[in-house]
Amino acid sequence: MEESELIKRRKEKIESLRSDGIDLYPNDVGPTDTTTSLIERFGSMDQEALSGITEKFTVAGRLMAVRDFGKAAFITIQDRKGKIQGFIGKATLDEKTVSLFKRLDIGDIIMISGRIFRTKTGELTVEAATLRLLSKAMRPLPEKWHGLTDIETKYRQRHLDLIVNPEVRETFFRRSRIISLIRRFMEERDFLEVETPMMQPRAGGAMARPFKTYHNALDRELYLRIAPELYLKRLITGGLERVYEINRNFRNEGISTFHNPEFTMMEFYMAYATYEDLMVMTQELFCFIARELFGSLRMTFQGREIDLTPPWKRVSVKEAIAQHCGFDRTDLADAGKILAYARQRGLDVGDDLSQGKLLMALFEGFVEETLVQPTFVIHYPVEVSPLSRRNALDPSLTDRFELYIAGKEIANAFSELNDPVDQRERFLMQLKEREAGDEEAHELDEDYVRVLEYGMPPTAGEGIGIDRLVMLLTDSASIRDVILFPQLRTKEA
Q: What top-level class would CATH report for the domain 3-141?
C-alpha cells in the first residue's frame, strides 16, 4: 500500500479518536517501571510464584507489534531499555478501552498498567488492566520484516533507525558508557575537566582547514576550532597542570567512513610528563575501558582479532617505512631516493616536498593500513609536528607518537614544545608554507608565543579520537554508525 494511503487512514483514525474526546497527546502521566526492570526482577520466577504478586506495574513505550486473536491480543511495547509483551483481554476491559485498542497503530506511544504473569509459552507479560494512548503516530514505521536497512535513510532519519534497530541503540548506549569511563579514569588521576572556546580568532592546534564564521557585534571573522590545544596549554601555563576536555572539533575536509567534519576528541595535558609517560597512560586507559566493557583485553573488529594486552609495540616512522617498503635506513636520508620510490609506487608527490613530508607520504600510503595490533609510531619529522618538542638525539625529529589500531590512527601525542623562540620559528616556517598555498599550515599565533614567554612547564599532551575509539569498541565499520547525526552530502532528487 502506498504510504500516502496509510497516512490517510491514520488521519481518519485520528479524527475518530478526537471526536470521541480522546486526548491524542496527553502529558499528565508516566510509567513507574521499565521493560528491563520488570524482566530483571521477575525474569527468573515461574507462574506459580508470579501468581502471588498482586502489585500493579506500569510501562510505557512504542507499540511495535500486535497479534490479535479476536477476544484477546498480545502486543509488544518497546521503551529505552528493551521490549516486553503485553496482554489485552478484551472481555475484561471496558468498551471504551477496547475501542481505543482497535484504533491503535504500530508506532503509537502507549501506556499499560496491570499485574505481571507468565504465558503458557513461558513469556513474561503485563496484563493490561488500563491502557492509554500517549502519542499518536501519523506516519508508519518501516516494514517490520526487513526493518530499516537503507543506508541513506538510516543516517538521515536516525529516529527511525533507533526505533527499529535495537543494535543501533546499543551502540549509542555503549558510546555514552565509554565517555563516562574516560571521565572516571581521568578524574582518578587528578585531571580537571575544562571547556575552551569553540569559536576562535585564529585556527590553531592542528594542521587542518577550518570553517569560517562571522561575528556581527565584534565585526570580525572567527573560526570553528580545529583543536583545543593552544587554549589547554594556556591553562597549563596558568598552573592547572592536569587538564582535559571532551570536545567537538570542526575540520573542513573530506567525508569518509573514518572522517566526519564535526567530530569528538578527548584532549588532555599533563605537566612534568613526557610522551613516553603518555604511552603508558594510554595503554592503561584503553585496557581499563576494555575490561569494563568486555571483561577481556581481546576483541574483534571487522573480522580481525585485536589484542590490547600490554606492552604495545613501538616503532619509529623511519623503522616502519624501512620494514614495509624495503628501504635501507640510510636511503631514508636521501630525499631524491624517497621521491623516486614514491612516484614508482604511484604516489602523487610534488618536487617541492621536504624530506619529512616525503617520509610521511610513504608512511600514510604504505604503512598505516598494516598496523592492525596496537602500535605506537614514534619520532615524527619536525616539518609535520610544529608544536612538538625536538628529540634530543636527532633535532630533525620530535618526541611524538601516534597510536594505530586496526590500520587507523586513534591518538596523537607529544612532548610539548615550550621554547618560545623555537615555537616562533616553527610558526614562521608554517607561515611560509601557508603563503605558498598550504591551507592546513598553522597561522602565526603571536598571543600563544607570548604565553610561552611566561614559562610553560615541561608538558606532554594527547588527543584521542572518541568516534574512532567507539568504532573500535562497537565493531562499527563507519564513523557514521557511531555519530547520531553525521554530516551527509546533499540528497539528489
A: mainly beta
